[in-house]
């Protein structure tokens, strides 16, 4: 691979990466940049000036740089200083089709889209005439097998919060049987007391991330900074399997660690002092370090939930909508029956959760808020589904994912990185220490690649569905130069 230097990258404002033209003839964005082009350091003076202004009103300490979305295109993001970076972070894994996708831009010319922008509906009381079409043509068209209902909300945390509420209401209704709410329940819930406010819980996993709202944060344990100072529910947590890599050399250890995790879940579900209404799990623990488990593990987890009459929630907020090479990452598990609920957001540009009809509350307004989703975002979701289908983007993700993992494992063989793992293009690897990982992320941006981390020392790749092998070559060459400089 070509060795790049920091100086050569920063001094090539009008030149592009030498591998940028590989495969460009078949690009989903023929007019996207041919490669990274760097004019300044990142963040540059223009970004810093805007950040200084913004910091008077909003905290900017988490900001990488200021984006110029008008100039960004395809797999490339442009910043306020005119730097063009290959983007494999993609707005925290939330961009599906690339920047300024023609499929999205065409929507802005449609009267229905303009009407939805000008008149935002409170969907619970006044859904628009075409809302049902968006639900049918986006969310239900790609509903996980065996799931026939969807509840739309505003964000991934909202999706998980409402899935938790659904689980609690379902379990409480099952205990109550055919009876109506008692006066004692109605009065006690207004005081946040039992029996109206029952002592139920959600079981989650160590290193899991499910959001930053109160219920979702109680189920989150990926980073202490998310949770410190916030009152939390005392909910149970099971260990997630800590697999060793390469997988083919650690089969016995990984089987044992997965078995131990299932046994821990089983033991926690036997505790009847605080009944568990549902178990929530990510197909890949994304914020917690891109932690994987085998399909057999998840099948066993569902079986344990069924044995204890506990609902099984799959959190696909970061893993869903094609990033794994299948539309839903949990499809790879070959579950005997569908999960009870599947939450989504990010790459769908909309949020919500799928559920079975039996989980619908028996009274209205129990799952409810003002917006209950957004017709504008639902129309975008239709475009996403159509583009994935028409351009066979799932095959593209599988192809580029296989290619990237093979190349990264070769780099691991040379001890440049370690523990390569992935499903489709949801790929990660580790560096030796947190400090080396953090420096790597910064150095990669200086060389023209926007990239992110997770866990303590993990680098995660979250490219768009339009990311192709010629983009991967640029990424790999830049990584090689950064890791060997």
UniProtKB/TrEMBL annotation:
PROSITE patterns xref list: AA_TRANSFER_CLASS_3
Keywords assigned: Aminotransferase, Pyridoxal phosphate, Transferase
UniProt-annotated stretches for the region Disordered: 21-45
One GO MF term: 4-aminobutyrate:2-oxoglutarate transaminase activity
Catalysed reactions, semicolon-separated: 4-aminobutanoate + 2-oxoglutarate = succinate semialdehyde + L-glutamate
GO CC terms: mitochondrion
EC identifiers of the protein: 2.6.1.19
GO biological process: gamma-aminobutyric acid catabolic process
Cofactors required: pyridoxal 5'-phosphate
PANTHER family assigned to the protein according to its UniProt record, in alphabetical order: 4-AMINOBUTYRATE AMINOTRANSFERASE, MITOCHONDRIAL, AMINOTRANSFERASE
Family note: Belongs to the class-III pyridoxal-phosphate-dependent aminotransferase family.
Name this protein carries in UniProt: 4-aminobutyrate aminotransferase
């Amino acid at each position: 691979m070509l060795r790049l230097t920091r100086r050569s990258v920063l001094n090539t404002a009008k030149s592009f990466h030498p591998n940028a033209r590989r495969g460009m003839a078949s690009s989903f964005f023929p007019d996207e940049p041919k490669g990274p082009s760097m004019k300044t350091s990142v963040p540059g003076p223009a970004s810093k000036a805007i950040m200084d202004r913004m910091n008077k009103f909003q905290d900017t300490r988490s900001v990488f740089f200021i984006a110029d979305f008008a100039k960004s295109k395809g797999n490339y993001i442009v910043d306020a200083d005119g730097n063009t970076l290959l983007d494999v972070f993609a707005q925290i894994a939330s961009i599906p089709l690339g920047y300024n996708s023609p499929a999205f831009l065409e929507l802005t010319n449609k009267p229905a889209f303009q009407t939805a922008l000008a008149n935002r509906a409170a969907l619970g009381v006044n859904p628009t005439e075409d809302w049902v079409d968006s639900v049918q043509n986006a969310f239900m068209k790609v509903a996980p097998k065996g799931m026939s209902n969807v509840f739309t909300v505003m964000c991934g945390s909202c999706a998980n919060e409402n899935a938790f509420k659904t689980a609690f209401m379902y379990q409480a209704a099952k205990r109550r049987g055919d009876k109506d709410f008692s006066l004692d329940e109605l009065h006690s819930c207004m005081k946040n007391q039992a029996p109206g406010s029952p002592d139920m819980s959600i079981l989650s996993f160590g290193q899991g991330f499910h959001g930053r709202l109160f219920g979702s944060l109680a189920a989150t344990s990926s980073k202490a900074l998310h949770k410190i100072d916030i009152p939390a529910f005392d909910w149970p947590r099971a260990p997630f399997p800590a697999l060793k890599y390469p997988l083919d050399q650690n089969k016995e250890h990984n089987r044992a660690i997965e078995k131990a995790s299932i046994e821990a879940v089983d033991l926690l579900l036997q505790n009847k002092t605080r009944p568990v209404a549902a178990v929530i799990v990510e197909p890949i623990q994304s914020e917690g370090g891109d932690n994987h488990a085998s399909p057999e593990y998840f099948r066993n987890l569902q079986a344990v939930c069924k044995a204890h009459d506990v609902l099984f929630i799959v959190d696909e907020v970061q893993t869903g909508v094609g990033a794994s090479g299948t539309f839903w990452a949990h499809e790879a598990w070959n579950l005997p029956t569908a999960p009870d609920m599947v939450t989504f957001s990010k790459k769908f540009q909309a949020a919500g959760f799928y559920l079975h009809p039996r989980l619908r509350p028996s009274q209205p307004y129990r799952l409810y808020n003002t917006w209950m989703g957004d017709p504008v975002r639902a129309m975008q979701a239709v475009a996403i589904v159509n583009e994935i289908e028409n351009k066979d983007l799932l095959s593209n993700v599988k192809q580029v994912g296989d290619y990237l993992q093979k190349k990264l494992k070769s780099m691991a063989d040379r001890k440049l990185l370690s523990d390569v793992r992935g499903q489709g293009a949801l790929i990660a690897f580790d560096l030796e220490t947190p400090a080396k990982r953090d420096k790597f992320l910064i150095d990669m941006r200086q060389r023209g690649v926007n990239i992110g981390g997770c866990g303590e020392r993990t680098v995660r790749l979250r490219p768009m569905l339009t990311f192709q092998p010629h983009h991967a070559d640029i990424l790999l060459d830049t990584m090689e130069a950064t890791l060997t400089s």
